[in-house]
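Fig. S4 source data, part A: sequence.
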Amino acid sequence: MTVAMMLPTTLPLLEVFRRLTARRRERSQLMVLLIIGYLSVWMGFGVAAHMFDWIVHQIVERISWLETNAWVIGAGTLLLAGSFQFSRLKYRCLDKCRAPLSFVMQYWRGRHDRRNAFLLGVHHGIFCVGCCWAMMLLMFALGVGNVAWMLILGAVMAVEKNMPWGRKLSALLGVVLLAWGGFIVFNHFWL
């Protein structure tokens, strides 16, 4: 899921890094280390998200009200993800992801190329998690194995991070998620 959804959103960074290291003998190794650093952050997030999901399932099994009203978890996830779309943290991380050249210039240091390539990937992964964690949590609400939702959310995150008008999409998506979560709550309380 991580590779399918998140690696395409980091293609601009990979292209900048490829050009930067094109004349080096170890360029392939450096690219692999960058990708490993990036994916290691997402793997850590994935493990934490699966543990959180497991804990939520354990809680639902022990609290009969939640078991009967499981919609609360889905609505809460949508409302959380929608609210996060308007947060300063979201936009700070998104801005870092949108400027791959300045990102590389900031985090690519001189002497220890292999270590720095790995750490560049880690730093980019941290900012990427910072702007996309709420969208990834939606996968748990929508179904982790649902390829269609994975493609849709992956495309949304790629546009959000890589297109000049992506910031407008973030706000629109926030409104849609808040409305969807609000509709679920309204539907269960008033209908």
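Fig. S4 source data, part B ends here. The radius of gyration is 19 Å.
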